[in-house]
Design a protein that fits this description.
The protein contains seven helices and no strands. By secondary structure, it is an all-alpha fold.
């Protein structure tokens, strides 16, 4: 059974990346474009250039879209993870110690989900993987490595 699950790992990781990227990008779209209820629940947006909300929204939209597509996944996940760590420690954590007390569960979960993608890469269904295959077909060495198994 373990061998079957291991063989499906790239596909499960690819689906994980797509869902996390889509949800993360939605947070940015809410704040920047006022869709899905907007930043204030009434279709409002954050003020352009307002620190840190506008910058966080740009990182969420761009980083989430890149992660969703699997394009530059590791770099996009690195920046996104850092943004969520900042959000947690500067916005949520001063209110209370535990995420359940300070409404920081989302920031903490996105931080760790993106952190995971830094080390795993895009998995299946990603543009990164397609570009890697194309470069190896042209005779260039592939940078993709076998994931570390426990």
């Amino acid at each position: 059974m373990t061998a079957r699950l291991d063989s499906a790992q790239p596909y499960a990781l690819g689906l994980f990346r797509i869902v996390v990227g889509l949800l993360f990008a939605c947070h940015g779209a809410v704040a920047l474009f006022g869709v899905l209820g907007g930043a204030d629940g009434k279709g409002g947006t954050v003020a352009t250039g307002a620190w840190p909300n506008w910058y966080a929204a740009v990182i969420e939209l761009v980083g989430g879209t890149l992660v969703l597509l699997g394009l530059g996944t590791r770099v996009a996940a690195f920046v996104s993870s850092g943004a969520m760590a900042y959000a947690y420690f500067k916005v949520h954590q001063p209110q209370a110690l535990w995420p359940v007390e300070n409404s920081g569960e989302g920031a903490a979960l996105y931080c760790w989900a993106m952190f995971l993608l830094i080390f795993t890469g895009s998995g299946a269904f990603g543009v990164d993987r397609l570009l890697s295959r194309r470069s190896s077909a042209q005779g260039r060495p592939s940078r993709e490595q076998t994931p570390v198994a426990a």
